[in-house]
Amino acid sequence: MIGYVTLGTADLKKNAAFYDAIAKEMGVGRMMDEETFIAWGNMDGAPGVAITQPFDGKAPSVGNGTLVALQASSQEQVDRIHAIALEQGGTCEGKPGDRGGGFYAAYFRDLDGNKLNAFVMAMPG
Description:
Blueprint: E1 4-8, H1 12-25, E2 29-33, E3 37-41, E4 48-52, E5 68-71, H2 75-87, E6 91-98, E7 103-109, E8 115-121
Parallel strand pairs: 1-4, 5-8
Antiparallel strand pairs: 2-3, 3-4, 6-7, 7-8
Helix pairs in contact: 1-2
């Protein structure tokens, strides 16, 4: 149902490096790259993530309770994505770990304060 998610950014170039590093770990690249908008993913694949300078010219804002979840392929990839996010200047919002019911996740914020997580669902064993 979801085609893509777009987050506002105050500094497209600086935040692009943050998302380039995470996208590389997830095996995707930029699928659109415009002057005020960049999107990552595959055109005919799973939903992508984009950042944009707000169309109205006002400062971007972070939604209270808003979160973008990035589906990883393994717990190890969740760990790597979290580490990459922090290496790229993001902030930790919850270290990688089991959240119950086979849900393994790590939470972080990008350079503009947007909250994301990387997660994987594993069958309880």
